[in-house]
Amino acid sequence: MAKKAFKSESKRLLELMINSIYTHKEIFLRELISNASDAMDKLYYRTLSDENLSFNRDDFYIRLEADKEKRTLTVTDTGIGMTKEELEENLGTIAKSGSLKFKSENEKLEDVDIIGQFGVGFYSAFMIADKVTVLSRALESDTAYQWEAEGTDGYTVKEAEKETVGTQIVLSLKANTEDENYDEFLDEYRLRSIVKKYSDYIRYPIMMEVTKSRPKADNDKEYEQYREVETLNSMVPIWKKTKSELTDEDYNSFYKDKFYDFENPLSVIHTSADGMTSYTALLYIPAHAPFDFYTKDFEKGLQLYANGVLIMESCAELLPECFRFVKGLVDSADLSLNISREILQHDRQLKAIASHLQKKIKSELLNMLKNDREKYEAFFKNFSRQIKFGVYENFGKDKDLLKDLLIFWSSTEKKMVTLSEYVSRMKEDQKHIYYACGESIEKIEKLPQTELVAEKGCEILYFTDDVDEFSIQMLREFDGKTFKSVSAGDLDIESEEEKKENEKKKEENKDLFLFLKDALGDKVKEVRASTRLKSHPVCLTSDGALSLEMEKVLNAMPNDQKVKAERVLEINVNHPIFEKIAGLLDSNKDKLKQYAQVLYDSALLIEGLPIEDPVTYTNLICELMQ
Ligand code: ADP
Question: What's residue 194's pLDDT?
Answer without folding.
Answer: 92
